[in-house]
From TrEMBL, chains A, B:
Domain of life: Bacteria
Keyword line: DNA-binding, Transcription, Transcription regulation
Protein name per the record: DNA-binding transcriptional regulator, Lrp family
SUPFAM superfamilies in alphabetical order: Dimeric alpha+beta barrel (SSF54909), Winged helix' DNA-binding domain (SSF46785)
The species this protein was found in: Pedobacter rhizosphaerae
Gene Ontology terms: biological process: regulation of DNA-templated transcription; response to amino acid
Keyword Magnesium: no
GO terms for MF: sequence-specific DNA binding
One annotated Gene Ontology cellular component of this protein: cytosol
Residues annotated as domain HTH asnC-type: 5-66
Amino acid sequence: MQNEIDNVDLGILRLLQKDASLTNKELSFKLNKSIATIHERIRRLKEQGYIKKIVAILDRKKIDRNLISFSQVLLNDHTQKTLNEFEEQVTKFPEVMECLQMTGAYDFILRIATKDMESYHDFYRNKLATLANITTVQSFFVLSEPKSETAYPI
Amino acid sequence: MQNEIDNVDLGILRLLQKDASLTNKELSFKLNKSIATIHERIRRLKEQGYIKKIVAILDRKKIDRNLISFSQVLLNDHTQKTLNEFEEQVTKFPEVMECLQMTGAYDFILRIATKDMESYHDFYRNKLATLANITTVQSFFVLSEPKSETAYPI
DNA sequence: ACTGAAAGATAGTAGGC
DNA sequence: GCCTACTATCTTTCAGT
């Protein structure tokens, strides 16, 4: 079993990133391969970890997540212990959709989804700000989303 | 047709956000409803826009997107024309996965996915920096991803 | 609104090229 | 590695409650 990827695999990944509800039959037509071939390719792409998961993307406004905040966090120090503790605790908060350790002036960027500014404030005061070793938190809020993609162009 | 959502709908959304390859049969078992009911609920959730799309999430490192940058962009002015032009042009770049207009010191945050620092540099010099009306670009790079979720806890 | 069952479509498997 | 053909399973529809 080789670990290289060809144009058929790329085509499958390209299409499934945009719409994973496409059937093998539809893929086989678009990519000029038999259904069985498509089936086997998808099995391999999952097995080899190219496809991590298939998920439903929801309209966040419909489920009352109207406010997205990006919060840049600076910690007091950067010992293994402090970093691990912060990560462990902050990733437990359901409001935190994303926690990324970054280069630059701040240590982490958090993407935080809440119902509105009031619930963000509540999260900030009663959850985020209670964590140990935080020096600074700088928050920005999303005004509009001209582009938001999960699909990598490949 | 009512636009309210009940516990069965919530259960479906909760499960499909995590794994949209679940069959109606599996959902019907987990939620104690008939297959036909699940089927009808999902149809409605799509029709009403709760479920925007079903997508495959890829492992970006497997497809050679090893570097993620967050770039904060400040524009020269904030006329309708300048904002629209910037949005229109920056969203066309395939490297730009996300373009968010923000409150605060900067106007936009971009999430940029490239192969490595060299290809980021190429993008920056030959694409992003060529756009009109940019005052400042401040970029940070992802070191690690302690948490990265597409599923809202509901 | 929910259900069970029928009909049609798709996924998954196996054997041959 | 790709295909056709087969079987199991799933989706989709619909009459009945």
